[in-house]
Amino acid sequence: MKKIHIVAHTHWDREWYFSDNEAFIQFSYHMDEVIYALENNELDYYYLDGQLSIIDDYLKVYPEKETKIKELVEANQLFIGPWYTQMDEFVVAGESVVKNLQIGIDMSKRLGGHTLLGYLPDSFGQGKDMPKIYNGFGITDAVFWRGMPNEVTKSREFYWTAEDGSKVLTINIRNGYYAGVALVEGELYQKKAMLDLVSEDSATEVVTLPVGGDQRAVDRDLKAIIQEVNEQFGTEYKIEESNYPHIFNLLREKTTELPTVQGEFMSGSVSKIHRSIYSSRYDLKKLNDTIENRMIFQLEPLMLMADDLGIPFKRELLDYIWKLLLKNHAHDSIGGCNTDKTNEMILARYKEADQLSYSTIDYLVRKISESIEGIKKNDLILFNTLPYTRTDPYVVEVSTKHADIKLFDENGNELDSQILSTEKVYAGEVRRSESDYDEAKYYYIHKVSFTKETKSLSYTIVTVKEQTGSNESAIPSNAENAIIENEAYKISFSKGQFSILAKNQGKKYENCLYMEESGDEGDTYDYSPAYHDKIHQLLFDTTDVTFQTGPFLSTMTLHGEWSVPKDLEARKIGELNTKIDYTFTLSLSKDSKRIDMKVKLNNQAMDHRMRLVVKTPVESHVSYADTLFGTVERNNQDPHIHDWKTLGWKEEPTEIYPMIHYSNIHDETTSWSIMSKGIKEYQVIDSSMYITLFRGVGFLGRPELLRRPGDASGNQYRYIPTPDSQLLRDLEMELSLIITDDFDPVMIQKEYQTYSVLSPYYQVQTLNRFTNPIQYFQSNKVDQLHPLKKFVDLNNSNLVFSALELSRDGHRVNIRLYNPSLVEEVANEKITLATESNVCLVDLNGDFLESLGKLKEVSLGTFKPGEIKTISIER
Predict the structure, then answer these.
(1) Integer CA distances (angstroms), 691 to 445, 514, 673, in order
(2) Signal sequence span per UniProt (predicted)?
């Protein structure tokens, strides 16, 4: 006899085709109903969607309810956490997932404790690293719905493993987290059909049936319904109210009957998976990427440095900014599959998090710089917030009274530099006529590039001296055949085509960069080709080419326009009736392995997709991309791309894949990697990499897509226009190409960090009081800065640096590293500390695992493929 375990729950989208404010009104009453139902024996248990953010919102308005919630949690009636929000697994950074759990668990502690369950019932696919993230928080059980293909396992209960050996006992919900609603609302025959369905793939007699749904009210008659169903079908099924901890305890007794699986799950065979949601609302995803990198690689390390110097670490401020960001990581929010009204509120949170994060950095670098003993006017303080020595060229802006400058190091030696531009600016009170301006009140803003070695997690000082001579600066040149080069590459442009000479390989690659434009008759969930489509290959056919060469930075800039169809109707008749202005800039920095690219577009076309095409010589059937804490290998062609309709799949398994920071293809002779700032989608066709810059669509959901037959996603009963999702505006994308002999994921991630994380800096001057919005305000100096503690340098590490964080008790500094390899161990890894310290290993939540002793040289042992370790060092 099958025993059906009913889990009463709600799935609470913070926002979607409604705003978070609209959802909150319902939740404020819903939570009262939950408390009443549990207190009055209408329900034995209730699972509150595994996220704390909705409770956080509730308690800000109803703080008096905290005691009651805590009582119910401690009585094991109300189950909360461990997440702060129900996040996406494919486009946010790994450290964002860690922060999501850290903040959710920390908040749940004062509310009676969290449920040790990796619960993500509606995420659009399951990332391969989730088992090791869960294990890193002491979580050994997981529940999800979307993405699991039948061909991996027929069983709904199994062990899910990662390549490092992490393992979670997992329930894959049959037919979704709302399947049990049929038990409440269906006719008797529908109740029986549903019980048969959810039972047929269970490996044991323990069957899970969630009863709940999106923003669903409490089912107050659940006990009576269970009794009725037991009376009708008691010979086949025994139904009882239950909870996930109890269910997993029962399943653990059946471990010999359960299969083991590994990998990521993003199949549309049994549920919609929205394999192209990664490119919906690119503008929001880029903002997210910018703020994530700033929070992880700039702000928290800088706050740690400031704390060492005597400026207190503000944990509450850091958590507040993270919460703003994490609210936007809810799977619909980060997906961009929302109404325009909701996306406006998401954008508002991004703007708030953006302003708070960069303002905190601006404040701290100014506070530190102006408090340094002996600091002088025109000193330029450069900060390195990464645990590597930085030698890559700086690009900074400095303000001086005179038009000519030179730079000097701390020993008075002149630094070679390259003036990129100089602008004359007025510092006096503004007037309607510039003829009234006082010539004596003008000053100059110089953009200058130079190199200055800066040790890890430290600062260095460069002095700006004003000169009476003339600066040597690179002058933009126009030429039909433009060429820029550095130590690694020589890039030529002629007659609309690029050629790249990879000097280390001695190979020249012709016509290797161009654009592709095509129709998109999909929606905010899915790209889908237009019913009447034509793909346009867009070359850079322009004579407006300028290039600027210099010892530290060389750039090539193209200006032009492309003619494309304005809308689907124009596309249908083959009319090219609108123009897209573009600026495409390639940059080469001194000693860099990267070709940095910036694309600026004025998008005036609707319902279309634009992709950068990188044509490579690679011969491979697979591609690679980074994951939350590792690397994934994916097939360039899905085995079911031709028979998916016959098999009854929910959507076409187009080989469109997510990347967090980079994608790669390589073979025995060459490796090509594309990194990006906010672009999250790629596809490999033959030997070319197609990187989705953006796509614009006009509806939340559309029915009967070529790639996704059947009902519209989101809301099946009405069209919801989303004109803002057409992205009819100026757009800017940043990417970088690396061509090497071998694929080295550690090198790529390190390059990504130096590429995406700019070094903060501050010039001691009063000419320009608007270098940032808060520069105008007076700030007191610190009476006496403490000496900055030397910490660690990971220049020679064979691992990826992931995070530097202060423990929640403030007594330890945690540094997180991982091995991104799929197959190779990293053995005998060591880090050397500046001073002998007490060292231990902690888990992802910062909880103690193992003491390593008082050490200066720390042996980290062996890192298995994909393994994460967090080293905790006493301050």
Answers:
(1) 36, 11, 11
(2) none
